[in-house]
Write a structure and sequence with these properties.
about 220 residues; alpha+beta
């Protein structure tokens, strides 16, 4: 059985499961903000089913997440996280820190993966934003693990190409403009070499002004 994914293919059989992860998502910490990038391709097995998939979502005024995994679980967990964060703000009458938001999403991922189900959820998140302590970036594993990233991170099969670019060109205290330019280079490398990534990209910046989607572009190839 194949399930629609933000480029993750999961095949369930009586024998051990075969899981192939795809997509490319990127997060970069800059001195004046955080940059998130993602490609737009969604697949079901080897078939491209959506060339305009939205993989970067806003879950609070200054918090965004990127998604790589099964579409149904990704959408469900994102909606739950958004609701839980709103409830937490109402109950405490205070803003939610990025660490708290990351823990909400990680807990949801942990219990979603371990619930009694024939089809466990497979979703990885990057969560980034601004709070009173500054700008932060976290990587949430499909098992609910949390890793705070001080500089950059990437998820999906395209990440092996992304890391080569970021390891070489990333600099501490780079500006958001420099981060966007570097993120584009890294994403370009992934799209050129990873078959599960492509069809375009979205770029979001989270700075002192909040969550802002600064660029969205489709990449189409047509034989004339």
């Amino acid at each position: 059985m194949l399930e629609l994914s933000y480029n993750t293919m999961q095949t369930h059989q009586l024998s051990p499961q075969l899981v192939k992860t795809g997509t490319t998502t990127i997060g970069l910490v800059c001195k004046d903000g955080v940059v998130l990038l993602a490609d737009k391709k969604a697949t079901a097995g080897t078939m491209i089913v959506d060339k305009h998939a939205k993989k970067i979502h806003q879950i609070d005024d200054a918090i965004g997440v990127t998604i790589a995994g099964l579409v149904s679980d990704a959408q469900y967990l994102t909606k739950l996280a958004r609701a839980e964060i709103k409830l937490k703000k109402i109950r405490t009458d205070s803003e939610v820190t990025i660490a708290q938001a990351a823990n909400v999403l990680a807990n949801l991922s942990y219990y979603n993966l371990r619930k009694m189900s024939m089809v466990p959820g497979i979703v990885g998140f990057l969560i980034a934003g601004r709070d009173s302590l500054g700008f932060h970036l976290y990587n949430i594993g499909i098992d609910g693990s949390i890793t705070e990233e001080k500089d950059y991170t990437s998820d999906g099969s395209g990440s092996i190409f992304v890391y080569g670019v970021l390891e070489t060109l990333y600099k501490k205290d780079m500006t958001v403009e420099e981060g966007v330019a570097l993120g584009k280079k890294a994403l370009h490398a992934a799209i050129q070499r990873d078959a599960a990534s492509g069809c375009g990209f979205d770029i979001v910046v989270i700075n002192h002004e909040g969550f802002k989607r600064i660029e969205s572009k489709d990449i189409n190839f047509k034989i004339e």
